[in-house]
Amino acid sequence: MLAQAGLLAWILAKAIVAGAGLGELAPALALLLLVFVLRAAIGGVRGILAARASGAVRQALRGELFSRMVDAGPLLKGRQGTGALGTVLIEQVELLDPYYARFLPQMVTVRVVPVAIVIAVALADWLAGLLLLLSAPLIPGFMILVGWGAEQVSHQQQAALARLGGIFFDRLQGLDVLRRFGAEQREAQRIADFSEDFRSRTMQVLRVAFLSSAVLEFFSSVAIAVLAVYIGFGLLGFIELGPAESLTLFTGLFVLLLAPEFFNPLRTLAQHWHDRAGALAAARSIRGV
To answer: In the chain, which stretches have pLDDT less than 50?
Structure first.
């Protein structure tokens, strides 16, 4: 990421300021192409490794859950219902996939990438690095506030799904009895009511997710805009604060190219924060079994 931003800034600065031709810039362009390919390859390998790890965790967990269900016998089935247990074994274990495949790797990325970018930007322009550092806590702080509410909403949604699965399975088992007593319409209406409750709770989860994403995008856009205004006015000579007087096109482009990359891991973590909330809610039911 740092090499990509540095090469792009150097190529553009050379072409615009020094008027360098394509022949002079060819080695840097070839190196930039190599960096693009390398970055894409690293991202692909990371995705493959994370998916394999998540699959191994879920496979082991399903095996352990099934063994516990068999060992518990009819007592567990009578207490929770076959449909609810099936939902735990299939649906709720599957909800752990985004947590292991996306959230945990992104947590590592957030600990490494923004720190490296702040250091690189501060070495190029300490005031720009300070602006990034001051804007960074806004996103994690808001994420934590949203996460508390998202976890509760996700837990309610999954409880509604477990109820719906249990009722649907039980009604399928007793379909002949329902027909004999002429209760098909009444039970169909009950299932429809539970389905509507599940739909409503799912929309609540989506509402929280979209609202938090919009606010996080707003905060990051404002921070990048402030940085762009500082660099633009510094290059035009309208600002004499700190290192603004010695700001060059290469430095300004380098900082501007890295600013979105600084917020990208934080925004991605904010998106996966809802995966964490869903996984924690599912873990409650799994622990119960």
So the answer is: none
Please count the helices (runs of H) and the strands (runs of E) in the chain.
12, 0
How confident is the model at residue 9, as a pLDDT?
Answer: 94
DSSP 8-class letter at 241: S
Q: Which residue has the tokens 């449909």?
A: 83
pLDDT at 52: 95
pLDDT recorded at residue 67: 87
Q: Which of 102, 94, 98 is nearest to 47 (CA)?
A: 102
Burial of 97 from C-beta contacts in 10 A (0-12 / 13-18 / 19+): middle
**CA geometry: angle at 30 spanning 264 and 39, to 5°?**
30
CB 204 within 8 Å of CB 151:
no
Question: Over the range 207-234, which residues count as b (16 or more CB within 10 Å of their CB) and which as e?
Answer: ebbeebbebbeebbeebbeebeebbeeb
- Summarised one tens digit per residue, pLDDT across range 76-92 is 766 666 667 777 888 88
Q: According to the model, what pLDDT value does residue 33 have?
A: 96
Task: Please name which of 243, 266, 270, 14 lies closest in space to residue 117, comparing C-alpha atoms.
Answer: 266
